[in-house]
Amino acid sequence: MKNIYVFAFATFGDPNDFRQSPFICDEQSFAQKIKIFDLTNAIKVFPDSTIYAIRKEIVNEILAISYSIYTYAKEQYSSRKGTFIGSSITYSNGVAEEEITITKLLTFHNALIRNNTNNNILSVNHSKDFNIPVSIISNFITTDFCFKDVNIGDHVIGSTNNIIVYSRIDKNTLYNNFKDSLELLYKYDSIYFTDNKDVISHSRERNIYLVVDENGFKNEIINIQNELKRKAKGYILELEREKTKWAEEINKLIYCLEGEININKNLPHQNKIIINDLISRSKIICDDYLIFSEFIDDCIRQLKSGKALGKVSARFIKEKNKFANWINDAERTSNIKIIKQN
Questions:
Q1: Residues 159-213: pLDDT tens digits?
Q2: Is 278 helix (H, G, I), strand (E, B) or coil?
Q3: How far apart are CA 274 and CA 339, in angstroms?
């Protein structure tokens, strides 16, 4: 399963406490570096409650996005409160469509509960002992997930900012919330959704994570969109300055080359070869700058049309470095020895 990792986890009590295990795994070393899905004391799972989450992290310099579900489950030999069982789908290098993710997550989680709990009590004491039907695993393998790119700009590094949303969690609402959350991951590491009042009341009492309702969630999205628009406008100005700066650099270089051409026009035959080379080099430099200038214009057009700033800036930096190296080489090789007339 390329780019897909599916985990099952729970709080098991003494001696194992929280444990998670991958049951579908593209690369074992990658799966081992995924952060644990344990809930902190900021969020408590109550009986009859369901909590969904979306989370970002960097694993092996790759952006990983996880979609999770938590439901209540008692530990085998404990009456401790807030214990849970959960499932998670983690994607690397893009995510699947939200509808597919939700369907697969629920199917896996329902099978996990059905095969590993009895009257809400866990029947195993470690995640590695979970019984997951082969048919569930096979269904993942045969599904076309149709991955799409995710870009959350320069805020990929964990910020420990998390938000809890008091919201409906029916399939349609969850679909839209997960989709909108990809933008909100620009600001937050994890976003939780629940319709359970007890979960929300406890989280507000703890006052560790921001708690909002559906309107607050929408306002957060709008604020992020406005911030990204402001950043895009600022980057457009930066691109325009870059275009002007490189035009000046090219003009200086061409002026130097034309000076060498003019000096050697009436000199011996050997210099005609040099002059032709200088003329040819000037044309190449001008043509390359024209291509680079059009690339900058294309970056500006993409930003104005709503293209993700992170993707545009990454492309620009890469092309800018290539062009800068080319110009540096051109400047170094422009000092040609001239054969002067006696």
A1: 568 999 999 999 999 999 999 999 899 889 999 999 999 999 999 999 999 999 9
A2: helix
A3: 9
Do 253 and 282 fall into the same domain? yes
Residue 68 lies in a domain: yes
| 249 and 131, same domain (yes or no) | no
Give the chain's domain count. 2
- Domain shared by 323 and 265, yes or no: yes
User: What one-letter code names the amino acid at 212?
Assistant: V
Q: What is the pLDDT of residue 342?
A: 34
Nearest to 217 by CA among 193, 201, 197: 193
Render pLDDT for 27-47 as a digit per residue (tens, 0 to 9). 888 999 999 999 977 899 999
Helices (H), the chain: 28-33, 98-116, 134-142, 171-184, 197-206, 214-263, 270-304, 309-332
Please list the residues that pair with 193 across neighbouring strands. Answer: 52, 165
Judge whether 341 lies within some domain.
Answer: no
Rounded Cα gap, residues 139 and 260, in angstroms: 71
pLDDT band at 263 (very low <50, low <70, confident <90, very high): low
Strand 162-166 and strand 210-213: the pairing is parallel
Q: How far apart are the first and last CA of the chain?
A: 76
Judged by phi (left if over 0) then psi (alpha if -120 to 50, else beta), residue 82 lies in left
Write the CB contacts of 77 (distance below 8 Å, at least 6 apart in sequence).
13, 14
315 vs 1: CA distance, rounded Å: 29
Residues 259 and 178 both lie in one domain: no
Question: Per residue in 81-107, pLDDT tens?
Answer: 899 999 999 999 889 999 999 999 999
Range of the domain at 38: 4-208
Residues 62 and 156 in one domain: yes
CA angle 75, 9, 99 (to 5 degrees): 125
**Which of 220, 206, 18 has its CA nearest to residue 125?**
18
